[in-house]
Amino acid sequence: MSPLNHEHDNAVIRVYSSSATTSQKSCPTYLAAKSDYSVKWQARKKFSRFAGVAFAPFNAVLELVENHQVPLDEAFSRLPVRGDAARDIAGELIPALHEGLLAWTHDAVRNYLRALQEDHHLQTAADLRPAGPWVRQYPSSGAAVTSRVQELCAWGRGYVYRHGDDIVRELRIPAMGKAGTKRRTDAELAIAAHVLASGSCVDRDVVNRNPGPYRGGKPFPLLPFTASSPASVLPSRVRLVEIGCMDGLPRVLYDDTAEAAQAFFVSEAADVLSALRRPVTEVAGRDCLDCKVRSECRRLHRAPGFLDIRDSSRPRRIWSATIGRYFSDCPAKAHFRALSLPPDEESEKTAFVRRGHAVHAWLKRLHSRKPVRPCAPDDLPENPDIWSVDEWTLEGEYARSGAAMLAAHLEVCPFLDTAPDSPAYPEQTVAADDRHADVLIVADADLLYRRHGSWVYRELKTTSSGFVADGADLLTRYSQLALAVLLFKAGAIPAGPGSAVELELLTPLGPDIRVIDPNSMPIQERAESIVHSLARSWHPDDEHLPTPSEEICSRCSYHRWCPVSPRNRSDRSAP
To answer: Which ranges in 226-385 belong to alpha helices (H)?
Structure first.
């Protein structure tokens, strides 16, 4: 593990509840450095022309409306748009909003406020008012680094009210799209509930007068517990409610007494917090984008010049084959995806797409078994007419065709000639850092496994077409294969004599395997031409302008946010 460089030992350790929801791809060292404010950035942060965090303008508008009594239309009018300089709104510096983010913000704020007004639980409450944020602060008890002031925080919008005999603190957590689509662990909920049950209210007046030091790691100033300030009174009950910003529907995540919240915290979150504060490993992946200690990381592969771009003046970003494909379709579409704006579900999750996800998820489970073994007939869905895996359920024709694809996979399973103890990593993220372009390159291999001592990168595709591209067209059609070749060439994936980039195509006519040699110089040159071309047009763009065309727009799942989409008929000025 790379050591954390503590430059300012009196800086706070500030952990947000969301840090407790992690996956195998999360990096413990990144999370520890993120929460430790004594670990400083080693390079000056570069700022984007447009707002890159969707919830920043959303929260700024709600701050004006709820805490400064600014009318909603006036609050919207204060948001900077294309061509404007960044503006300080309620203590937050907000860069200009792309037209798509502005459209989402209008919808999201209105839906959030509507959810607040129409909540049946709150309609029976008394003395409802905005409050918080609350922080559970543990004072320093010594000179050691581990004894510095520690703060637990929960992200969301806070409220206090009376409900019957209870004094309630409620945290409403906005979701970009619909509530319930984001995974939240018990540890995350336990930390948030603990903060509400026992935390002190931040003295907002003190922070707003000079926010810089507190954002830089000075412990938050806290209001004393007093009956004269309802936000500072300890509650008898706490509630966590997720709000879908696209439908305004609430989802209660937690609702219990303050005592129960404390017990919940002890049972579900205490060990998780200890692990977050004492990282024991590094995981290269998307966390490397904003990591403060990436220059010391032993896992992140350095690949200067990977994209053949010598310009590090732009804000640091991620590039993948998917981003390159989206940008080629339309720069605005790529920007909407980078902002995580919610796509249209009908366009995004067609029956064909759901079938593909289900087949991928089924094979991921099979390929995750230890020791590894070939997929067999007994591993197929018991009922091909209806079957489920994770959040995907298939019925009828698509279930049968998906089951047929799984059956076809048995002929080409990668473990047919692989030793049981061979390393195999389904859905493995591979990362490479190009400091010449200041870009983190990532690829998600459907399977990365070792066969006869050499690493093999396998990509899985399901298709309803019997046509399969070949030769140079294969790398062009599936640019992620070209990226995989270059990851071998750069050493991000160690290349051996038997290394290969494999494309497994499951078609109505059966399986088809195409094998690409990443050690071949002509293949490498072709891959470089494809990847460099995609990245070269993407890297300098800071306008994110839409490039409408009938073909691209007809299948775009972000048309709701596009200012020129012929399918976008919503009136943003409607109340």
So the answer is: 258-268, 270-277, 321-329, 331-338, 345-348, 351-367
Residues 6 or more apart whose CB falls under 8 angstroms from that of 364 comprise 426, 427, 446
- Strands 301-302, 424-434: pairing kind: parallel
Q: CA 179, 183, 188, 192: dihedral to nearest 10 degrees? A: 0
Structure tokens at 441: 């390159």
Round to whole Å and give the CA distance between 208 and 213: 11
What does the alpha-carbon distance between residue 376 and residue 409 come to, in Å, rounded to a whole number? 9
pLDDT in tens, 332-348: 999 999 999 999 887 77
CA triple 548-553-554, angle to 5 deg: 150
3-state class of 32 per DSSP? helix
237-276 tens-digit pLDDT? 999 999 999 999 999 999 999 999 999 999 999 888 887 7
| Coil, helix or strand at residue 355 | helix
Residue 31: is its pLDDT beyond 90?
A: yes
> Cβ atoms within 10 A of the Cβ of 313, count?
8
- In Å, what is the CA distance from 459 to each residue of 81, 481, 482, 519? 41, 8, 11, 18
**Hey, what are 259's tokens?**
């005592």
What average pLDDT does this structure show over 552-574? 74
The whole-angstrom separation of Cα 388 and Cα 393 is 4
Pairing of strands 200-201, 150-153: unpaired
Q: Which amino acid is at 135?
A: V
- Alpha carbon 290 to its chain centroid, in Å, reads 13
Find all residues with CB under 8 Å of 533, minimum gap 6, and list them. Answer: none
Tell me if 30 sits within 8 A of 78, measured CB to CB.
Answer: no
Question: Domains of the chain, with CATH numbers?
Answer: 13-50+98-277 (no CATH), 345-537 (3.90.320)
- The rounded distance, in Å, linking the Cα atoms of 14 and 32 is 10
Token pair recorded at residue 283? 């995981």
Q: Which helix (H) or strand (E) holds 407?
A: helix 396-409
Interatomic CA distance for residues 19 and 497, integer angstroms: 41
Q: Are 574 and 364 in contact (CB under 8 A)?
A: no
pTM over 0.85: yes
